[in-house]
């Protein structure tokens, strides 16, 4: 249930950005969300529709792209993309791995009119 504060920050960052650039209508907000955050895109859109009412970003569509979990292996040194349920290197199956991606959350761009 941490979508609410996350959505509040999307609305405030995007509105600030739009106001700074004298934008009147924001059509789309592109967001990247790492799989490890556990954030649900549909929840974010739901909260967004409520919170954005009366702001410059009201009515915008959220284009949320999920980013994979990426690791770097401590044994073979290679980087790979893994599933939630297999925390091991895709190349050598070592468990000596370091997570280097999947916790991201950021607004990539705004599409404006
Ligand atoms: Zn490896």
TrEMBL record:
Q: Which residues bind Zn(2+)?
A: 73, 76, 89, 92
One Pfam family per UniProt: HypA
The positions annotated for binding Ni(2+) are 2
Q: Does the keyword Zinc apply?
A: yes
Q: Which InterPro entries match?
A: HypA/HybF
Which superkingdom does the taxonomy of this entry point to? Bacteria
UniProt keywords, alphabetically: Metal-binding, Nickel, Zinc
Q: Which GO terms describe its biological process?
A: protein maturation
Molecular function in Gene Ontology: nickel cation binding; zinc ion binding
Q: What does this protein do?
A: Involved in the maturation of [NiFe] hydrogenases. Required for nickel insertion into the metal center of the hydrogenase.
- Family label: Belongs to the HypA/HybF family.
Against PANTHER family, the record matches this protein to: HYDROGENASE MATURATION FACTOR HYPA
Name the UniProt record assigns to this protein = Hydrogenase maturation factor HypA
């Amino acid at each position: 249930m941490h979508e609410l504060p996350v959505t509040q920050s999307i609305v405030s960052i995007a509105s600030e950005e739009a106001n700074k650039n004298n934008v009147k209508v924001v059509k789309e907000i592109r967001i990247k969300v790492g799989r490890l955050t556990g954030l649900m895109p549909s929840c974010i859109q739901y909260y967004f529709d409520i919170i954005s009412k009366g702001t410059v970003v009201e009515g915008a569509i959220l284009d949320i792209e999920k980013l994979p979990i990426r690791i770097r292996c401590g044994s073979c040194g290679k980087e790979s993309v893994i599933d939630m349920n297999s925390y091991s290197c895709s190349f050598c199956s070592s468990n000596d791995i370091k997570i280097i991606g999947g916790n991201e959350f950021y607004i990539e761009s705004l599409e404006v009119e």
